[in-house]
Amino acid sequence: MLTVDNLYAGYGLSEVLIGTSLTVNQGTVVALIGPNGAGKTTTMRAISGLLKPTRGEVRIDGMQVQGMDASRIAKLGLSHAPEGRKVFGPLSVEDNLLLGAYSRLPKFFGFHGKAAGDLERVFDLFPRLKERRRQSAGTLSGGEQQMLAIGRALMANPKVMLMDEPSMGLAPVIVEEVFTIIRRLKESGITLLLVEQIARRALEVADYAYVMERGRIVVEGKPSELKKDERVLAAYLGDVAVAG
């Protein structure tokens, strides 16, 4: 479904990704973990078109998308819930969600009608958002804004979803709520690439995982295997969360 092969990308003269390769098969949740500055968010940005790779390939359903604009990649079925949530504060919760569906629905006739069913599915998943559908997104709590960012990405009805640091800055009780949602998405058969600062929690929900250091994948395998790897245990599975 999503294949990244020998990807290089960076900012200006600074190259962050150095031959990154990973695969996310249809209907699976894949975790990408690693220390601060490893290149995880850069990987997500290069996949979704927010950053242009300098070398390598990104394929969605076999189609090469590297170098395409982010809007075109979104139309091909990829959605991105970014680090830091990036909601549109002045707009209502509902309008933020509707923006998520914009790339795949008719722009003039029938947009709201066809988006209504998707809205209800998101509201079923996030009842709190339904309660606040007319409220400005900027007035929501951090946890509610994270739910909104995930819901907006789901409104695209994506083939593949990228979720970057969903627990960042959230209280433990809200982190638990977010991971309950991720489990429900997994049960629904979503194809998901998850970057998460709390490595232990990421491995609990993932079918497969990659460990990134300094722009390269250094370890990969099933979570059950990584939990036995002494290097992974020492670096990532202690009590301290790994920054993303």
CATH architecture of the domain at 2-85 and 158-236: 3-Layer(aba) Sandwich
The CATH superfamily of the domain at 2-85 and 158-236 is P-loop containing nucleotide triphosphate hydrolases
Described by strand count, sense and barrel closure, the largest sheet is: 6 strands, mixed
Distance between the termini: 25 Å
Mean pLDDT comes to 88
Uncertain runs are: 239-244
How many H/I helices?
10
H and E order = EEEHEEHEHHHHEHEHEEHH
What is the SS-derived class?
A: alpha/beta
CATH class category name of the domain at 2-85 and 158-236? Alpha Beta
At CATH level 3, the topology of the domain at 2-85 and 158-236 is Rossmann fold
Radius of gyration: 17 Å
What order do the strands of the largest sheet run in, or round the barrel if closed? 6-7-8-3-9-10
**Shape summary:** globular
State the share of residues found in helices, binned by percent.
25-40%
Number of strands: 10
Query: Approximately how much beta-strand content do the residues carry?
Result: 15-25%
Question: What is the compact description of this entry?
Answer:
The chain has 244 residues and is α/β, with parallel strands linked by helices. The protein has helices spanning 40-48, 70-75, 93-101, 111-125, 127-131, 142-154, 172-187, 199-205, 223-226, 230-236; strands at residues 2-11, 14-24, 29-33, 55-60, 63-64, 78-81, 160-164, 192-195, 208-213, 216-221. Strand 9 and strand 10 form a beta hairpin.
